[in-house]
């Protein structure tokens, strides 16, 4: 599912705040064309993001970039609360220009997985105070100067907490060639061509590519490519009226039954039921944003 900034932000607003008391009310896998910062507290949660499943301890701060594909999943019978602020790309673009260019800044915006850091309890409480100030501004309809100042202070504080974390354990980071390959393979002309395109785009041997994908993405090259194909197919289902067989072909699947099998395995719904559940004028997950307008 794709969430668009034009359906979220009003002209006079620079951010949207949302508070979730339980992840059971949140939607499934989705991506968007804007930025998001969220903070977990009151429990641990699985973060399904960019084809990986990561356990987030309570008090984890996460920076979601445009095109990060993610959702949340409960751990057993547990649950957690999430505070969330979303904001348009233009705001972060201005801040990115101010920060300048460096390897760390590049990691912040382009690393394969969203940057995250687990905070101390005092750090969490301080950041929650920032969120609460945004809440108060929202309820009091003070969306102009005061609210935007609080918002920008909070985003600055978030980046200051994330950047030092990015600068550690460089050896464990994904190699530059694989980051580049990941970006290239996310393009339709490449993931629809499959393994042949992947091998042509890299100077590494097929064996080395396979080992690296397994290490950094936890799957085989075929599964990795199918992730891009299925994500594209899901977007087509909710954004077009194409027949399902056309969606499968456009996404790179020549066998319709294979597409059905993989799609249901990934999204827990058949393509038809996924379309019915998600193809709406107002995306359900944004109702939480709207309640605070």
From TrEMBL:
**Pfam families assigned:** AraC_binding (PF02311), HTH_18 (PF12833)
Alphabetically ordered keywords of this record:
DNA-binding, Transcription, Transcription regulation
Q: Which residues form a coiled coil?
A: none
Annotated InterPro entries = AraC-bd, Homeodomain-like_sf, HTH-like, HTH_AraC, RmlC-like_jellyroll, Tscrpt_reg_AraC-type_HTH
Top-level lineage group: Bacteria
HTH araC/xylS-type domain boundaries: 179-277
Which molecular function terms from Gene Ontology are attached? DNA-binding transcription factor activity; sequence-specific DNA binding
Concerning PANTHER family, the annotation shows: ARAC-FAMILY TRANSCRIPTIONAL REGULATOR (PTHR43280), HTH-TYPE TRANSCRIPTIONAL REGULATOR EXSA (PTHR43280:SF2)
Name under which the protein is recorded = Helix-turn-helix domain-containing protein
């Amino acid at each position: 599912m794709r969430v668009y900034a034009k359906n979220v932000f009003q002209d006079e607003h620079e951010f949207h705040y949302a508070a979730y008391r339980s992840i059971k009310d949140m939607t499934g896998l989705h991506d968007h064309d804007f930025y998001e910062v969220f903070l977990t507290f009151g429990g641990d949660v699985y973060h399904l993001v960019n084809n990986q499943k990561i356990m987030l301890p309570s008090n984890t701060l996460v920076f979601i970039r445009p095109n990060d594909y993610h959702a949340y999943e409960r751990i057993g019978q547990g649950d957690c609360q999430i505070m969330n602020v979303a904001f348009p790309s233009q705001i972060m673009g201005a801040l990115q220009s101010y920060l300048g260019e460096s390897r760390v800044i590049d990691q912040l915006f382009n690393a394969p997985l969203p940057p995250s850091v687990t905070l101390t309890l005092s750090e969490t409480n301080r950041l929650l105070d920032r969120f609460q100030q945004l809440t108060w501004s929202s309820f009091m309809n003070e969306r102009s100067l005061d609210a935007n100042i609080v918002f920008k202070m909070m985003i600055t504080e978030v980046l200051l907490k994330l950047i030092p974390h990015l600068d550690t354990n460089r050896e464990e980071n994904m190699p530059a060639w694989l980051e580049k390959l990941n970006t290239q393979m996310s393009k339709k002309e490449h993931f629809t061509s499959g393994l042949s395109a992947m091998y042509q785009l890299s100077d590494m041997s097929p064996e080395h590519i396979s080992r690296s994908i397994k290490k950094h993405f936890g799957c085989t090259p075929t599964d990795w490519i199918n992730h891009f194909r299925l994500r594209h197919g899901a977007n087509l289902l909710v954004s077009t009226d194409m027949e399902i067989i056309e969606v499968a072909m456009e996404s790179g699947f020549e066998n319709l039954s294979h597409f059905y099998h993989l799609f249901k395995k990934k999204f827990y719904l058949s393509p038809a039921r996924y379309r019915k559940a998600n193809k709406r004028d107002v995306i359900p997950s944004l109702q939480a944003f709207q309640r605070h307008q």
